[in-house]
Write a structure and sequence with these properties.
The protein has about 80 residues and is α+β, with helices and mostly antiparallel strands. It is built from two helices and three strands.
Length: about 80
């Protein structure tokens, strides 16, 4: 079951709202008011390959940010987004 924490809501130029899944990054529904988004969110199921894409994005972000974090004296866990 999905929760409201699984979605980001965006107000569009035409005053409609989009709901974006934070797991697969698909726009799952568009509605005229923000409360109406829950109906589309309740029906959403991420595509089977979505976790593969999410892990690939996380790995790329780690590769891109690792040199910046290390130069700032911090560390970045290689397994932070895998799992």
């Amino acid at each position: 079951m999905n929760s409201n924490a699984d979605y980001a809501h965006r107000l569009n130029d035409d005053s409609t709202f989009d709901s974006i899944c934070l797991h697969c990054f698909h726009t799952v529904t568009t509605a005229n008011s923000e409360p109406e988004l829950v109906f589309g969110e309740a029906q959403h199921t991420c595509p089977p390959d979505s976790t593969l894409h999410t892990k690939s994005i996380a790995k790329l972000l780690r590769q891109l940010t690792s040199p910046m974090i290390e130069s700032a004296g911090g560390t970045l866990s290689a397994n932070a987004e895998e799992g």
